[in-house]
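Backbone-to-sequence.
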């Protein structure tokens, strides 16, 4: 029987034994590398709900199954949710170098939130506590490349 700590040790030894551990060479795993994701955050005073239709009482509404969008590609014609009276002002889209990139990430059409371009979104949560204290989700271009 192999134990987790033995397996971890063997993996570390194999990794450290490589001549070049930092190159992005082809691997036998199908691993997607997502570089410099944008972090979409909710303003501290903003409100959020998870419903099939907005109640009109919150700043942001996502459908209860928004987590199904994790790691999938969302096109600019697929709505993500709804905004209230404050629009996108309740959100920020912060890049790895701490710059705002909302125009490249999200847009509003008729009160609904849409991607500004095809995106791969991940770490989407339906937990309002996490959405407010951490972030709503991360995003990169559909190709996995950074959004600039």
């Amino acid at each position: 029987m192999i134990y987790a700590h033995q397996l971890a040790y063997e993996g570390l030894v194999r990794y450290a034994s490589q001549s070049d551990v930092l190159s992005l060479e082809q691997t036998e795993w199908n691993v997607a590398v997502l570089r410099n994701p944008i972090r979409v955050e909710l303003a501290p005073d903003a409100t959020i709900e998870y419903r099939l239709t907005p109640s009109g009482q919150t700043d942001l509404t996502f459908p209860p199954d928004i987590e199904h969008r994790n790691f999938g590609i969302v096109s600019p014609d697929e709505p993500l949710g709804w905004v209230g009276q404050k629009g996108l002002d309740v959100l920020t889209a912060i890049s790895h170098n701490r710059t705002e990139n909302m125009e490249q990430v999200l847009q509003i059409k008729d009160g609904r939130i849409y991607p500004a371009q095809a995106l791969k979104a991940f770490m989407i949560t339906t937990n309002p506590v996490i959405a407010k204290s951490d972030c709503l989700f991360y995003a990169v271009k559909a190709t996995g490349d950074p959004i600039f």
